[in-house]
Amino acid sequence: MGEGNRRHSITSNVLHNVKPLHLPVSWDESQTMDLANNKNRIPSVKEFEAADRETEEEFKGLSHVEAVINETFSSQNIFYKIHIFPGGVSNEFTAIVFYKLNKDLLLAKETDLSQELRTAILLELEKVGRGARNTIKLNFVEDSDENVKEKFGGDYFLRLR
Q1: Phi-psi bin for 61: left (phi > 0), alpha (psi -120 to 50), beta?
Q2: Which residue among 69, 70, 77, 140 sits deepest, i.e. has the most Cβ atoms within 10 Å of its Cβ?
Q3: What count of other Cβ atoms lies within 10 Å of the Cβ of residue 65?
Q4: Which residues does 81 contact at the CB level (< 8 Å), separation at least 6?
């Protein structure tokens, strides 16, 4: 058998033994199979709207919790900003407290203020329907505006990375 015929014979044997690709039952024929092109695909208006709804649901009640905490602890006059973010998992949140000065941060850690804040945030999350207090995982981060200015040139984005 010549070299050309031999290659043709091997190729056709391989092709005959390849099993067809079976798509999942839920696969819609109109969906794009080319995953390489999907990363360049622009989401539809419906997909953007669904993402907006999902984001709203993730942040539901968090601005209210921030406002209540700010008002409750405003007499302390040591806070610069308090932010609460969803953690990406149900009942998981991150509270970031920025004090005005480094000495305020130290004072909060030396006294019960940090624990009081943490407890108050958990209570408010429960009140806005984000889960029972004992099921909420709260990542609690404390820093100061003074530190962010000194170490990160005032860039909170760099600080939070």
Answers
A1: left
A2: 69
A3: 23
A4: 96, 97, 98, 145
Comparing CA positions, the residue from 40, 86, 43, 42 lying closest to residue 63 is 86
Least confident of 5-14, 60-69, 132-141: 5-14
Q: How far apart are the C-alpha atoms of 70 and 118, rounded to whole Å? A: 13
> For the residues of the chain, what is the DSSP string, one character each?
--HHHHHHHHHHHHHHHPPPP---TT--TTS---HHHHTTPPPPHHHHHHHHHHHHHHHTTHHHHHHHHHHHTGGG--EEEEEEEE-SSTTEEEEEEEESSHHHHHHHHHSSHHHHHHHHHHHHHHHTTS--GGG-EEEEEEEEHHHHHHHHTT-HHHHH-
Percentage of the chain modeled with pLDDT above 70: 76
Read off the pTM.
0.70
Long-range own/partner contacts, residues 75-83 (CB < 8 A, 24 or more apart): 76/113, 78/104, 78/107, 78/108, 79/104, 80/144, 80/145, 81/145
d(CA 95, CA 85): 7
What pLDDT score was predicted for residue 78?
87
Phi, psi values for residue 154, rounded to 5°: 80, 5
